[in-house]
Design goal:
Length: 404
């Protein structure tokens, strides 16, 4: 299939860009810039809530635009500049603006890559290709985690952020190797392959009448509320126990999780015979178990080992979400907008939990924070078990509600 190798490199290199941020920002602000956990949590919550509010319009724009390659190239360079700004000027104003920018880009990279994938491969190959995308994304995360561990240990934590412009340049080359005419933009927005040029998308409000869509949105909000702060808290806990090796232990925790996500990506490639609800339940069950283990075990080696559950939980869920969502809203022509709506809903859950988790750590310690997050994750698992139907690729709909 043409452009498959180019798409592999895009996923690998975008993982390298994102890998330079995330948990490294938390650890850098805590151990190098001298910020406390409560301030870090409040800032991440505020910037995250502002950024994710724009996910639905960004999704609608991705549906409509034919400049999908430009979105990725521009976003890659913006992310690189934000990372360098945080490392060079770690002031409240700079970090706040950078965090908002990163939150906005979170609504661009993933959906745009999936849209391009749909536009190239169509519905018949989407499950296998999304799994392949995820595998290369995970390999990229492993590469940057190992590289960041070495660079951070020998050249300081700021060195991790100064690598980002190089990855932005390589990402630009990979993206532009996919020609614009190789992307079918009708398929990329979730219209059926049998539709002709007169097909029109649903009215966006109709998405909220789709029961699987609504349940998926609620479940992912709870999932991310419980899961989002766990790696940040675990990285902080490890960094405080391993002075002078902050980047190395953070990278070790990420490597363990990413090694586990690779077989999870291949499992999603076989999701049709296994059943997508079974895989969803597996992902949702891993989060409360991980929280309980983090709450009661303090040994750094065990904490790093428990990151296997992060690979099973968030690793499996992240790959499965666009596939399950596509089955729920196929033919609507609003696929990326639906992705943006769920991104906003789950982002509110994830971003708001940083403030809660950081405050609990300050008041009662890490163990209590992990126990509370585990309880919330258990509620999300029960919701999926009881209410979520099996999701299979839906047949094309015959009659559409269209925008006036």
């Amino acid at each position: 299939m043409p452009y498959r190798l180019s798409l592999d490199w895009v996923n690998f290199l975008l993982a390298d860009l994102r890998g330079g941020l995330g948990p490294y920002v938390n650890v850098f602000l805590l151990t190098d810039a001298g910020w406390d956990q409560g301030t870090i949590g409040a800032l991440l919550t505020a910037s995250g809530l502002i950024g994710i509010a724009f996910h639905p319009p960004l999704g609608a724009f991705i549906d409509a635009t034919r400049a999908k390659r430009a979105l990725i190239v521009g976003g890659a360079w913006a992310l690189a500049l934000m990372g360098v700004a945080i490392a060079t000027f770690p002031t409240l104003a700079v970090v706040f603006v950078a965090d908002i920018s990163m939150a906005l880009l979170g609504g661009v990279f993933g959906p745009t890559v999936v849209a391009i994938t749909l536009g190239i491969f169509g519905a018949r190959e989407i499950a296998a290709q999304l799994g392949r995308n995820a595998a290369f994304d995970r390999f990229g995360n492993l590469f940057i985690a190992a590289t960041a561990g070495i660079v951070g240990t020998y050249f300081g934590q700021r060195g991790v952020f100064y690598m980002l412009p190089l990855f932005a340049m390589l990402t630009t080359i990979a993206v532009l190797s996919i020609p614009s005419h190789g992307i079918d933009h009708a398929l990329a927005r979730g219209l059926d392959e049998t539709d002709d040029g007169r097909a029109r998308p649903y009215a966006w409000r109709h998405l909220f009448t789709e029961r699987p869509f609504v349940l998926l949105a609620l479940g992912t909000a709870l999932f991310h509320f419980a899961n989002a702060p766990m790696l940040a808290l675990a990285s902080q806990k490890l960094a405080l126990e391993a002075k002078g090796f902050e980047s190395a232990v953070t990278s070790a925790a990420i490597v363990v999780a990413q090694l586990t996500t690779i077989p999870m990506a291949y499992l999603v490639m076989r999701s049709n015979p296994v059943g997508r609800k079974v895989l969803l339940l597996l992902a949702f069950a891993a989060v409360p178990l991980r929280g309980i283990l983090f709450a009661f075990v303090a040994d750094p080696y065990w904490v790093i080992g428990f990151q296997i559950l992060d690979g099973i939980g968030s690793g499996l869920f992240d790959v499965l979400l666009p596939l399950v969502l596509y089955g729920a809203v196929r033919g609507s022509g609003r696929y990326n907008m639906a992705r943006g709506l769920i991104g906003t809903i789950q982002g509110i859950g994830g971003a708001s939990s940083y403030a809660l988790a950081g405050s609990i750590v300050v008041w009662a310690g890490y163990s209590v924070a992990f126990a509370v997050l585990s309880g919330i994750a258990s509620a999300a698992f029960l919701l999926m078990l009881v209410a979520m139907p099996e999701i299979v690729p839906r047949a094309p709909v015959g009659e559409r509600m269209t925008d006036p």
